[in-house]
Design goal:
The structure holds two protein chains of two kinds.
Chain A (H helix, E strand, L loop, with lengths): L3 E10 L2 E11 L4 E5 L6 H8 L7 E6 L2 E2 L5 H6 L2 E4 L11 H5 L15 H15 L14 H13 L5 E5 L7 H16 L3 E5 L3 H7 L2 E6 L2 E7 L5 H9 L17 E10 L3 E9 L3 E5 L6 H8 L7 E6 L2 E2 L5 H6 L2 E4 L3 H4 L7 H6 L16 H15 L15 H13 L5 E5 L7 H16 L3 E5 L3 H7 L2 E6 L2 E7 L5 H10 L3 E2 H6 L1
Parallel strand pairs in A: 3-8, 3-9, 6-7, 7-8, 13-18, 13-19, 16-17, 17-18, 20-21
Antiparallel strand pairs in A: 1-2, 1-4, 4-5, 9-10, 11-12, 11-14, 14-15, 19-20
Chain B lengths: L3 H24 L6 H26 L7 H45 L4 H19 L5 E2 L8 H4 L4 E2 L2 E2 H19 L1 H11 L1 H5 L5 H27 L1 E2 L7 H11 L11 H20 L4 H24 L15
Antiparallel strand pairs in B: 1-4, 2-3
Helix pairs in contact in B: 1-11, 2-6, 2-9, 2-10, 2-11, 3-4, 3-9, 6-7, 6-9, 7-9, 10-11
The chains are: A alpha/beta, B mainly alpha.
The structure holds adenosine-5'-triphosphate and magnesium ion (MG).
Chain lengths: 507, 327
């Protein structure tokens, strides 16, 4: 008997049918994976379950009774906890306050929040997740992966029958992913059901009992995980075969584009030295919070260095702000889409062209020319396969993966010779991911240099030619050639062990 | 793709204005007299001109509360300059004083890191205070013998039946529209208002935006001051008390979002006239000025409530903005 049944569910947005008569069910005590390309409608389905969207037609039944949540609180009351793809956190409140917001246990006398209790319970939940986040820390100061863990903790604190997770691992590092998978298994043992959305098929096969595939808002297939295999699943999702094995072209190291010598920034970055050459993809790995995004921000002029020297194309380089860095031909992609990427009130076209305004002006008037903007936008829309109803759609109305593609387009559009890409394929589906990797390959073949921060190990190792590993704000390893292995990266990142390939080979 | 919501954002107030105008023959006979219309156009000009600058400020996510003080100070200085050096001096004085006021605000915000709301609240008092100081021995006025001077006539002259202040206002709106929609700095202002942190990573400097926006407000005040003093011929520290609120009300009524990121000059334009036409209608019906204020306040509240309801109860499937996190 199914615990939750979705029957003929249709959700329409202006200009698009995000879900079209989708049927789907969840059994008690199962992990049900939900997969599909970017924009397939996964998040929309989950938002219906969570009471955020109301369906245009169709029905949802929970334990046999009609379930029509009118607001998120209704879903919680029915025992459905949802971890959304985009975070919903109050940046100025503490971790524990966020976890229990709206449900704070109060003292019966003073009606005050019982801080000791929420802090303790939050710590307990984090212990289950195997992470050490301070419940009294302010959420705005946490890294993206820590914020994701807070969201997970929030859902676990509800004690729901059904836990719904929308790409919970997109922002987590490898060891955190491992912990989360254990937690999901434990939830299943406790008899709860989990709906699990992910673009990482290895997770799906490691966890799920059953899997449902959506394509373009339609239900394609539901089956036991044993009845399918990754290739088959991808074919169901995309509707064709996908070449997912990535071939990185052989590179000839060109001129040095970027060189850092002994650069430090406060306590967050200490004594960093690295080199990036034209035509290379240089990866930066490490566990979350080790300073990888800060490193890229420092190079982009968003974080001030207080010691050391940088050179760009052989000339001294000390950007005072991102504008300086952009003027010197540096492109940048931030890892936090919601807080530092999206311009929520602007259309996707304007979101993309904001980095190339000087190139979309009319020849005589020097004013912005909408036709040119559309040209630039269409170009990237085609290359990155952005799924949207039109160039004037607001960026918040795109699916998560498609937002990511627009922001990647913004970073690439100026045609910079040095690209600082933080998590370039976060939340992007398999097909598009391969496409983005090919694009990076092509850019470097044309002589661009890429510094890529990624918490996705296969990506980090597969796409980059050399890998720097960071721990505690320092570079603890530099791996080239055959030393680039998952074991080496994980070992160096977690233990801070120092491995420098060049020293190994000279020894 | 037709998006009713976005069309309403830009054209809703305009539709209301047209509706009101269509009703005027019935509810306020005599309103459509040429003379009366001219006077409405003339009186709306200085609020309208400054509303252009204010639209930029609010679209960038900031208020400028000091425009009333700026207008008083600029008017006083301009009259002094005219009495001392004639038309050219007056125009130069109006523009520079307005710009300077704006740059003072920008300086407070970018250099001393005072939030715009507080900085301009403070400078409102300072500017008015200076205007009072300059007029301690009586308000500055246009001398009676200058009544025929071209400068003195800016405020009262008509061209092809249209009052000059109105024409200036139309020009300012036109220039503002181009600036907001068709130039890089205008686009960056919207981007900054939409998300300052994301804008920073697009290479947008907050100093540039603040200087641009507050400088622009000052500039529009300078232009408005010219139409204002040539209309009323006198100014002191108390000139146009409550001016800032009229301007902000028009911008907000027009559909520019208070939280920044969106700005519509078409809406602002219509809202300016919606307010003045409504006022005029009430006056012609002999409604007391106390009631006029109440009606205007209610219109503002109702307009914004309708707006809020629209986003909350839009068609099925729409995403209700999670004003509270969903937990
Ligand atoms: N608020 C909205 N307004 C208009 N269209 C929307 C809105 N939210 C989602 N959509 C559209 O609905 C479709 C499905 O989006 P959804 O977010 O469910 O995709 P998804 O499967 O979660 O993709 P991803 O893997 O990229 O997160 C997309 O085409 C998207 O543009
Ligand atoms: Mg999604």
């Amino acid at each position: 008997m199914a615990l939750l049944e979705v029957d003929g569910l249709t959700v329409e947005f202006p200009g698009i049918r995000a879900l079209d008569a989708v049927c789907f069910d969840i059994r008690p005590g199962e992990v049900h994976a939900l997969v599909g390309e970017n924009g397939a409608g996964k998040s929309t389905l989950l938002k219906v379950l969570g009471g955020v969207h109301r369906p245009s037609s169709g029905e949802v039944r929970l334990a046999g009774a009609a379930y029509r949540p009118r607001r998120p609180a209704d879903a919680l009351a029915a025992g459905i906890a949802v971890i959304y793809q985009e975070f919903n956190l109050y940046p100025d409140l503490t971790v524990a306050e966020n976890v229990f917001s709206g449900r704070e246990p109060c003292s019966p006398v003073s009606r005050g929040i019982r801080y000791a209790e929420i802090n303790r319970r939050t710590s307990e939940l984090f212990a289950v997740l195997g992470v050490g986040i301070d419940p009294a820390a302010t959420v705005g100061e946490l890294t993206v992966s820590e914020q994701q863990l807070v969201e997970i903790c929030k859902a676990l604190s509800v004690d729901g029958r059904i836990i719904v997770m929308d790409e919970p691992t997109a922002a987590l590092s490898a060891d955190e992913v491992g912990q989360l998978l254990d937690v999901v298994r434990r939830l299943r043992e406790e008899g709860r059901s989990v709906v699990y959305v992910s673009h990482r098929l290895d997770e799906v096969f490691a966890l799920a009992d059953r899997v449902t595939v959506l394509r373009d808002g339609r239900h394609v297939r539901t089956c036991d995980i044993a009845e399918t295999d990754p290739d088959r699943l991808v074919r169901d999702m995309v509707g064709r075969d996908v070449e997912s094995v990535f071939h990185r072209d052989e590179v000839r190291g060109g001129d040095v584009v970027l060189e850092l010598t002994g650069v430090s920034a406060g306590r967050r970055l200490r004594d960093l030295s690295l080199v990036v050459r034209a035509g290379e993809v240089v990866g930066v790995g490490g566990i979350a919070g080790a300073g990888q995004p800060e490193l890229s921000q420092l190079i982009f002029g968003a974080l001030a260095a207080d010691a050391g020297t940088m050179t760009l194309n052989g000339a001294p380089f000390s950007p005072r702000n991102p504008g300086d860095a952009m003027a010197r031909g540096i492109g940048f992609l931030h890892e936090d889409r919601k807080a530092a990427g999206n311009l929520p009130d602007l259309s996707i076209r304007h979101n993309l062209t904001i980095s190339v305004l000087h190139r979309v002006r009319g020849a005589i008037t020097r004013l912005l020319a909408p036709a040119r903007e559309t040209e630039v936008f269409d170009d990237y829309r085609r290359r990155l396969d952005v799924k949207a109803t039109g160039p004037d759609q607001l960026i918040g109305q795109l699916s998560g993966g498609n937002q990511q593609k627009v922001l990647l387009g913004r970073a690439l559009a100026p045609g910079g010779r040095l690209l600082l890409l933080n998590e370039p394929t976060r939340g992007v589906d398999i097909g598009a991911k391969a496409e983005i990797h090919r694009l990076i390959n092509q850019l470097t073949a044309d002589g661009a240099a890429v510094l890529m921060v990624s918490s996705d190990l296969p990506e980090l190792l597969g796409v980059s030619d050399r890998v720097y590993v960071m721990a505690g704000g320092e570079i603890v390893a530099h791996l080239t050639g055959d030393d680039r292995t998952e074991e080496n990266v994980v070992a160096c990142a977690t233990t801070g062990r120092r491995v420098f390939s060049e020293e190994l080979s000279t020894r | 793709m037709i998006n009713a919501g976005r069309i309403w954002d830009t054209w809703g107030v305009t539709a209301l204005l047209l509706l009101l105008l269509l009703c005027t023959p019935v509810i306020a006979p005599g309103f459509l007299d040429i003379e009366n219309l001219q006077s409405v156009l003339r009186e709306s000009a200085y609020v309208g001109i400054v509303a252009v600058g204010m639209t930029f400020a609010i679209a960038s996510g900031a208020f400028d509360l000091s425009v009333g003080g700026q207008l008083a100070l600029t008017s006083v200085v301009t009259l002094m300059a005219f009495n001392g050096g004639g038309t050219a001096a007056a125009v130069a004085a109006a523009i520079t004083t307005g710009l300077l006021c704006g740059l003072v605000n920008a300086g407070l915000i970018t250099q001393l890191r005072v939030p715009p709301f507080v900085a301009t609240l403070g400078s409102l008092f300072v500017f008015r205070g200076i205007a009072y100081l300059l007029t301690q021995d009586g308000p500055k006025t246009l001398p009676y013998e200058q009544i025929e001077a071209p400068f003195a006539k800016i405020g009262s002259l008509d061209v092809a039946g249209l009052p000059v202040p109105f024409l200036i206002m139309v020009a300012v709106f036109g220039a503002g529209w181009v600036l907001l929609r068709r130039t890089a700095i205008g686009r960056r202002t919207l981007a900054y208002g939409s998300s300052p942190s994301a804008a920073r990573f697009c290479g947008i400097s907050d100093t540039t935006i603040r200087v641009f926006v507050f400088g622009l407000v000052g500039l529009t005040v300078g232009i408005a001051a010219l139409t204002y003093i040539t209309r009323v011929w006198t100014a002191d520290g108390s000139a146009q008390d409550g001016f800032e609120l009229k301007v902000i009300a028009a911008v907000v009524l027009g559909g520019t979002a208070l939280k920044g990121g969106k700005g519509t000059l078409i809406g602002t334009f219509s809202a300016v006239f919606l307010v003045s036409v409504l006022n005029e209608v009430l006056v012609s019906r002999g409604v007391e000025s106390a009631y006029q204020r109440i009606v205007l306040g209610c219109v503002l509240i109702v307009a914004l409530t309708v707006d809020g309801l629209r986003t909350r109860f839009a068609a099925p499937g729409s995403f209700r903005r999670a004003s509270r996190p969903t937990s």
